[in-house]
Amino acid sequence: MNETFSVRLRRLRERKGLSRRALSELCGLSKNMIAVYERGEADPSTETICQLANLFGVSADYLLGRIKNF
To answer: Beta-carbon neighbour count of residue 38 at 10 Å?
Structure first.
């Protein structure tokens, strides 16, 4: 089973040692929106996916769970 966006986002954030607040400041989203994404309650826009992928140095396909390796 593929990992979901929410799982990968949380894992990448934690690996970088970022709090939700720190990540939200880096990408211009609210801390609450990061939490919503990590709980899988909403899907991010294409722009946000690309921004997060760039921030973490991974592909959008990896972030979306479409491929196993970044």
So the answer is: 19
| Phi, psi (rounded to 5 degrees) for 50 | -65, -40
- Inform me whether the pLDDT recorded for 36 exceeds 80: yes
- Cα dist. 51→1, 6, 26 in Å? 25, 15, 10
* CA 1/CA 4 separation, integer angstroms: 9
Could you tell me if 30 and 24 are in contact, meaning their C-beta atoms sit under 8 angstroms apart? yes
Domains of the chain: 5-63 (1.10.260.40)
pTM over 0.85: yes
Using the 8-state DSSP alphabet, how is residue 43 labeled? P
State the residue for tokens 């989203």: 29
